[in-house]
Design brief:
Number of helices: 5
CATH architecture: 3-Layer(aba) Sandwich
Distance between the termini: 29 Å
CATH topology: Aminopeptidase
Amino acid sequence: MIKITIVRYGDADLGKIESFKDEVRGKPAERSQEHIRNFFRPPDYIVLAHAGSKLVGMIRLDVRKEVLVGSVHTTCGMIGGVLVHPDHRMQGIAQMMLKEAMQKLYREKMAFAMLCTDISKLGKLYKKVGFVPLNKPYYFINSDGIPTVDNEGMIASVCERETYELARRADTKINIGPSDA
């Protein structure tokens, strides 16, 4: 049986999480300087999946309170780092974690949720929990304070359908603020 929990990042067993990430990836993650500049902040929460005492999945979850959609200041939940141990894939664990993450974002009153992924490979998974391709660039500020663009975003409505619809419009710029993915 799989148990899903959400813990504040500071309360998580970070050594266990780093070991899990290295095991799933097959080696310690190598980070380019560009990656470090663009993705530098720890998340607010970690969604964890356990089979007994064994960690078998995780998701990074961030609560953004200063997002700009067009001229509207709003909130956004950011999902990233979805990992499931290879021995436990194709069992619905990622989907269970994503559903729990979306419920947490609802409790946090986030207007919408976003994530960045290779849509051609993983879009089908995220569509199962309500995400659709953004089909336009979005912007964030890297650790050097430089505005940066990404194009592989997906978006889902959480608490504010009107803000979500505004964010999906082709002519509306989305700035998610300082990077943390």
